[in-house]
Amino acid sequence: MTESSVFVQKIRDIVQRHQKLPTRLLQILREVQDSLTWLSAEAITTVAEELGISPDKVRNVAEFYSFLYTEPRGSYDILISDNITDRMLGNRELLHYLADRLGVAINGTRADGRVSVGATSCTGMCDQGPAALVNGYALTRLTKPRLDRIVELVNAKTPLEQWPGEFFEVVSNIRRADILLGR
Q1: pLDDT tens digits, 16-32
Q2: DSSP letter for each residue of 97-124
Q3: Which of 44, 82, 99, 183 has the least CB density, counted as fewest CB within 10 Å?
């Protein structure tokens, strides 16, 4: 089996799990991207063919959502949260600092394909900010020293599973129990 046919088969399997329903397009695109890291023109065309819809419709959905990528992303995809609370905690300075240290343009991918750096509207961690997502995993309480360590890990190609656990620590700050949160 060629690499291209393996690629097409992965997409077919994903579409089949969703019963080839065009109404599941967004979920299908998320799964395809998770499997292939981005949505190439070939992936978009294959999804369209499998669903029996136009490639333009698939491309328009892929380009509309900021969490779907029609350009290659780095092996480490780092998104700094850009909501108001993170801004108050200095996220913009940290975003520029990280991009400079990694040698990558903001919203770009480094030439070696190892890392992409950008901003995202929210990580759901504003109470523990500044926060970021690395390949979809939340990192909290970012500081320049912590970013320096992240740069070292990225440059050393250290798998996320080997990053310090405290980087991914999320503390439950829910302090009040009620009918919705349990008594």
Answers
A1: 999 999 999 999 999 99
A2: HHHHHHT--TTEE-TTSSEEEEEES--S
A3: 183
